[in-house]
């Protein structure tokens, strides 16, 4: 077993009198994609902030491997209108002096053409890709992405998750993804942690989707989405959107929602 | 002819230290003003400037060095403010409004309790550039150089925490230390500026050149540089206005800065 990147050990955190996290444990390993799912306000972002060291737990502890390089893609980032900042300068903040590396990172996330654009003029989806480029630029050991698919269309989401898988395969980094819908990320994730202030259940996507705790949280709606998704994706997309026939995932077909 | 050259000599003797002192403040007020605008700290700067008056009053009362007392007062208030901002009961701008006027009131009261300070109060509030001597010029340029060196050295972390503190922290920037540095630099600048434009006008010299530069700049560095240039021209024009129009120097500089800012409004804003 390789050394864990970050271990969250029985962490609890209360914010403004509200218990946001209760006795949460989580281990993030190199080369694994872990997806954090849960309803709005379940404490997903707070847990991510614990992992990143942006917040400290009231109880329990968070241990990061010494010398760990983190890449973080926040849910939102707004640059004040009074600050003139191009995309290239924005990336320079993370990695100065390497113009080529900055260009490559933008190329990678498909937004090389935005290099000289003002950050403020970017659309939501463009901003997400620029943020991902900034995170990748640091060649992180652990990449933490908070709702990376926000403002990205479906084809873009597919490419995005494909890219994350690729980055993981190439660099062996660990990835922590936050999502509020499992079906989007199902095929690309190694482990799912279902969070609602505490860890309701965790394991492979298939196991979690069959877990009663998950079904209570997401109801049959989530189940239907999941079934639809597993049906649709018995093939792979590459980053340009081409479809390759693949093996059947043989995933669970819960509740008779599998559409033929 | 001889009379004329005598007049010119007098003018140079009177104006040269004033001009050089004003330029020292302006050159630093450019980039510092940019940060004040980017981080929406105008009110914060104002509050610090008001606490400078309290510091000056204490220096007179306790017979200690003026600049040391002023910078200590600025930093104390800054640290107290940062501490108070952690609580969420009172909104930040309300808090600043309260602290700014408490410190101003206490400063004026403390000054008024001392003998023969009527003239001094006006000088502290609105500046007295024509009264500065060559030793002041030396001190101001030393301070200005120190601030500029620190700014350039810490430029990327300072800019990084301004864009997004979370990303900066994840990327290894010492956010709290960098934020404290920015406040220290602002306190240093206010301490220098108290003798030139006065506490009531320093915020405008911070904000107006930077706001004007925003409309001309495409990068943060350009904005800082243009703000410095606008500040330099404002000081020069303000002094000229004061000399020929017999107007008070500090307000004249602010009026000059306002006119230059007005001119930038004619230009279409950059992205």
From TrEMBL, chain A:
<dbReference type="GO" id="GO:0005524">
    <property type="term" value="F:ATP binding"/>
</dbReference>
<keyword id="KW-0813">Transport</keyword>
<keyword id="KW-0862">Zinc</keyword>
<dbReference type="InterPro" id="IPR003593">
    <property type="entry name" value="AAA+_ATPase"/>
</dbReference>
<keyword id="KW-0547">Nucleotide-binding</keyword>
<keyword id="KW-1278">Translocase</keyword>
<feature type="region of interest" description="Disordered">
    <location>
        <begin position="235"/>
        <end position="260"/>
    </location>
</feature>
<dbReference type="InterPro" id="IPR017871">
    <property type="entry name" value="ABC_transporter-like_CS"/>
</dbReference>
<keyword id="KW-0472">Membrane</keyword>
<keyword id="KW-0864">Zinc transport</keyword>
<feature type="compositionally biased region" description="Basic and acidic residues">
    <location>
        <begin position="235"/>
        <end position="250"/>
    </location>
</feature>
<protein>
    <submittedName>
        <fullName>Zinc ABC transporter ATP-binding protein ZnuC</fullName>
    </submittedName>
</protein>
<keyword id="KW-0067">ATP-binding</keyword>
<dbReference type="Pfam" id="PF00005">
    <property type="entry name" value="ABC_tran"/>
</dbReference>
<dbReference type="InterPro" id="IPR050153">
    <property type="entry name" value="Metal_Ion_Import_ABC"/>
</dbReference>
<keyword id="KW-1003">Cell membrane</keyword>
<feature type="domain" description="ABC transporter">
    <location>
        <begin position="6"/>
        <end position="221"/>
    </location>
</feature>
<dbReference type="InterPro" id="IPR003439">
    <property type="entry name" value="ABC_transporter-like_ATP-bd"/>
</dbReference>
<keyword id="KW-0406">Ion transport</keyword>
<dbReference type="InterPro" id="IPR027417">
    <property type="entry name" value="P-loop_NTPase"/>
</dbReference>
């Amino acid at each position: 077993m390789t050394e864990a990147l970050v271990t969250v050990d029985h962490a609890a955190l209360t914010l403004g009198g509200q218990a946001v996290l209760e006795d949460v444990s989580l281990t993030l390993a190199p080369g694994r994609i872990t997806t954090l799912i849960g309803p709005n306000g379940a404490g997903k972002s707070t847990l991510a902030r614990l992992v990143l060291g942006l917040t400290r737990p009231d109880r329990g502890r968070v241990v990061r491997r010494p010398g760990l390089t983190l890449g973080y893609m926040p849910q939102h980032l707004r640059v004040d209108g009074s600050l003139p900042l191009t995309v290239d300068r924005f990336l320079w903040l993370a990695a100065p002096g390497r113009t080529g590396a900055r260009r490559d990172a933008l190329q990678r996330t498909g937004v090389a053409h935005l290099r000289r654009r003002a950050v403020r003029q970017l659309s939501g989806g463009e901003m997400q890709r620029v943020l991902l480029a900034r995170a990748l630029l640091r060649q992180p050991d652990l990449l933490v992405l908070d709702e990376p698919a926000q403002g990205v269309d479906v084809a873009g989401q597919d490419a995005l998750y494909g890219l994350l898988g690729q980055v993981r395969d190439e660099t062996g980094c660990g990835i922590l993804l936050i999502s509020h819908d499992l079906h989007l990320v199902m095929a690309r994730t190694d482990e799912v942690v279902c969070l609602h202030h505490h860890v309701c259940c965790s394991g492979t996507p298939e196991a979690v989707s069959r877990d009663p705790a998950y079904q209570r949280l997401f109801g049959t709606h989530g189940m239907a989405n999941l079934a639809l998704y597993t049906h649709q994706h018995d093939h792979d997309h590459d980053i340009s959107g081409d479809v390759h026939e693949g093996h059947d995932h043989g995933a669970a077909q819960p509740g008779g929602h599998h559409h033929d | 002819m001889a009379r004329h050259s005598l007049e010119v000599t007098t003018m140079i003797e009177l104006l040269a230290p004033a001009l050089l002192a004003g330029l020292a403040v302006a050159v630093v007020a450019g980039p510092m003003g940019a940060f004040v605008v980017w981080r929406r700290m105008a009110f914060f700067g104002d509050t610090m400037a008001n606490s400078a008056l309290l510091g000056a009053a204490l220096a007179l009362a306790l017979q200690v060095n003026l600049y040391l007392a002023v910078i200590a007062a600025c930093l104390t208030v800054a640290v107290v403010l940062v501490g108070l901002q952690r609580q969420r009961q009172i909104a930040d701008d309300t808090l600043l409004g309260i602290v700014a006027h408490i410190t101003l009131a206490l400063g004026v009261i403390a000054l008024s309790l001392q003998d023969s300070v009527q003239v001094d109060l006006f000088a502290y509030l609105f500046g007295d550039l024509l009264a500065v001597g060559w030793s002041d010029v030396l001190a101001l340029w030393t301070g200005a150089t120190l601030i500029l060196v620190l700014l350039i050295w810490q430029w990327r972390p300072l800019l990084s925490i301004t864009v997004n503190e979370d990303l900066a922290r994840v990327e290894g920037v010492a956010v709290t230390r960098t934020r404290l540095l920015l406040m220290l630099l602002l306190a240093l600048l206010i301490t220098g500026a108290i003798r030139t434009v006065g506490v009531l006008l320093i915020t405008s010299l911070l904000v107006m050149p930077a706001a004007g530069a925003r409309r001309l700049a495409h990068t943060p560095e350009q904005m800082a540089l243009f703000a410095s240039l606008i500040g330099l021209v404002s000081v020069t024009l303000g002094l000229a206005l004061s000399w020929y129009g017999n107007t008070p120097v500090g307000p004249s500089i602010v009026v000059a800065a306002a006119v230059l800012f007005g001119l930038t409004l004619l230009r279409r804003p950059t992205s």
